[in-house]
């Protein structure tokens, strides 16, 4: 780096170095394999076009899509390089690097146009390596966004995170639904967003893209049985829309600490901005805006890898972080509503939701700042203002189905529904000598941005379904006004449901009262309508929270139904069970 960044480049070069560093630190001892890193997948469908995206480990000289009945049409792709994808000693690879090391990966995207609406067209992608070798995918099918009235089957899923049952889950989706028309993922696609192998080729065989493309090879052992699951060939044929979950947000950047440590080390941007101002004469003496923006991002959090991987609709204020789109009879609103994850434990060695670690009391640089929100959504924020405008738009008001997708659940029986979705209030306690004796965080219930601001707005506008994830279970609720809430995130594993004698780990003797059981926002979970599970006494359970049963949900726009299914991975030859169904009126 000393060769690249000489003093005369100035401080602007330092801000831009993060776009250059990947080239400097890339390690490629062997030539990239003569294959595509992923199959193609579909993005940003419109009435007249659809984008085709795929990845390689070589830059190549040319990349294209051929399509049509005889693949007679051709469109060239644009190529870009992922800037922050790395591997480290904790990567599940045959020979992971010790320090975080950049892994060069290239993304290719082409826009296919001129195809008839409401029909499927064959397509294939091809990449040419630098040595002239040509690599092509198999043939798949694509389609533009459907016309209003066109029947659709939509997969509702979330919280994959390379968990054990995901490949089985997606394989059973394909066996049950065949070819779906759209995939909605309510966040937490991977575990550590800058770790490339979690997206593409984790050695356990269950990375994000392989599982959704039928290319997984995950060996799931239950009892005396081991069954290999391949996932489902889904997104080669169906576009996907995603929401930002907390696992799409990377924390403070480093080339020495592990990627997991960096992921966990996100702090509020306001804190990073305050530290920047304290050091501005050293960091940015010329006060160049690019230096300031780069420093604050690298010392707080970012969603760069997620943004580089996906092509999503844009909103005027939120870029692709929150957006709205029409797909057939559906108007989909995707919100950026999630918090950093912090431990609920209360022991002195925990940097958690409710307290700082005792050894960090005098080290503000080590504070986690509680379970802070990444993007404001309170009334008056840019996201809320945009949402108000969207709910008044003709596209929303004229849509037959109105669905909102976000990551954190407004209603849930899970662990992650507590505390309130609001900014943490820091309380520092000191002794008579002024020494810190406690740093704790409160979350005032009356300031919950979901219940105070968001949900009344959505209900008044006529939203029919709020789809969420985060707690790794299945449960659903209905508000007094008839708005449905579905959390269908028991896909790969579960963190449990907090009902009866099972209680969340919540503080006592704090100013606020935190719900140890049930939905903290006061709704009663709906018992599945077809085949609910039962407790030991034979009573039906209003949830599925299991590390053996994997759950998925499908929306049928022709019938207006949302149906949920489970598959028992302990019995690999057992039938898939439809256990719940409800209508969107």
Mind telling me the CATH superfamily name of the largest domain?
Metallo-dependent phosphatases
The share of residues in extended strands comes to: 15-25%
What name is given to the CATH topology of the largest domain? Answer: Purple Acid Phosphatase, chain A, domain 2
Mean pLDDT: 94
Structural class: alpha+beta
**Helix tally?**
12
Number of strands: 27
- Principal-axis shape: globular
End-to-end Cα distance: 60 Å
Strands of the widest sheet, in order across it, are 16-13-12-25-26-27
What does this structure look like?
- The structure is a single chain.
- Helix content is 17%, strand content 24%.
- It has 585 residues and is of the alpha+beta class.
- The protein has a 6-stranded mixed β-sheet, with helices on one face.
- Strand 1 (41-43) and strand 2 (49-56) form a beta hairpin.
- Helix 6 (269-278) crosses helix 8.
- The protein is globular, with a radius of gyration of 24 Å.
- Mean pLDDT is 94; it is low at 1-30.
């Amino acid at each position: 780096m000393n060769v690249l960044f000489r003093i005369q480049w100035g401080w602007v070069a330092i801000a831009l170095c993060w776009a250059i560093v990947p080239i400097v630190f890339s390690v490629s001892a062997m030539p990239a394999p003569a294959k595509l890193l992923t199959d193609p997948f579909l993005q940003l469908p419109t009435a007249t076009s659809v984008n085709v995206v795929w990845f390689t480990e070589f830059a190549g000289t040319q990349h294209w899509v051929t399509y049509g009945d005889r693949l007679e049409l051709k469109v060239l792709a644009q190529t870009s390089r992922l800037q922050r994808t790395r591997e480290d000693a904790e990567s599940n690879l045959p020979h992971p690097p010790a320090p975080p090391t950049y892994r060069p990966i290239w993304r290719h995207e082409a826009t296919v146009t001129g195809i008839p609406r409401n029909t499927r067209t064959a397509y294939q992608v091809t990449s040419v390596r630098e040595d002239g070798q040509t690599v092509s995918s198999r043939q798949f099918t694509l389609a533009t966004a459907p016309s209003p009235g066109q029947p659709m089957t939509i997969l509702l899923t979330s919280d994959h995170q390379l968990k054990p049952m995901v490949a089985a889950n997606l394989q059973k989706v394909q066996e049950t639904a065949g070819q779906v028309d759209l995939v909605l993922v309510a966040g937490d696609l991977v575990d550590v967003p800058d770790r490339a192998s979690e997206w593409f080729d984790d050695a356990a065989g269950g990375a994000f893209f392989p599982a959704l493309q039928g290319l997984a090879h995950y060996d799931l052992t239950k009892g005396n049985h081991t069954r290999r699951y391949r996932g489902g060939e889904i997104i080669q044929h169906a576009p996907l829309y995603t929401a930002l979950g907390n696992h799409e947000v990377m924390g403070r950047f480093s080339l020495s600490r592990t990627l997991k440590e960096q992921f966990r080390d996100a702090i509020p941007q306001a804190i990073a901005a305050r530290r920047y101002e304290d050091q501005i004469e050293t960091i940015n003496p010329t006060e160049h805006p690019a230096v300031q923006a780069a420093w604050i991002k690298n010392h707080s959090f970012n969603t760069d890898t997620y943004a580089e991987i996906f092509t999503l609709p844009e909103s005027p204020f939120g870029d692709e972080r929150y957006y709205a789109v029409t797909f057939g009879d559906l108007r989909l609103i995707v919100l950026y509503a999630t918090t950093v994850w912090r431990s609920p434990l209360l022991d002195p060695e925990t940097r958690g939701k409710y307290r700082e670690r005792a050894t960090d009391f005098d080290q503000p640089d080590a504070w986690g700042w509680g379970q802070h929100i990444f993007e404001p959504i309170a009334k008056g924020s840019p996201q809320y203002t945009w949402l108000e405008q969207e709910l008044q738009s003709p596209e929303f008001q004229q849509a037959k189905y109105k669905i909102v997708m976000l990551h954190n659940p407004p209603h849930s029986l899970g662990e992650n529904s507590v505390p309130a979705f609001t900014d943490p209030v820091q309380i520092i306690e000191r002794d008579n000598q002024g020494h810190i004796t406690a740093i704790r965080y409160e979350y005032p219930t009356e300031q919950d941005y979901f219940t105070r601001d968001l949900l009344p707005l959505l209900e008044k506008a006529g939203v029919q379904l709020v789809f969420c994830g985060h707690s790794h279970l299945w449960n659903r609720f209905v508000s007094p006004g008839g708005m449905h809430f579905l959390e269908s995130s028991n896909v790969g594993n579960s963190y449990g449901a907090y009902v009866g004698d099972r209680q969340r780990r919540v503080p006592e003797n704090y100013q606020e009262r935190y719900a140890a059981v049930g939905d903290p926002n006061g709704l009663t979970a709906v018992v599945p309508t077809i085949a609910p599970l039962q407790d030991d006494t034979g009573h039906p359970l209003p949830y599925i929270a299991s590390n053996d049963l994997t759950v998925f949900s499908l929306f049928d726009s022709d019938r207006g139904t949302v149906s949920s299914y489970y598959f028992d991975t302990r019995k690999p030859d057992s039938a898939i069970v439809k256990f719940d169904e409800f209508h969107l009126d």
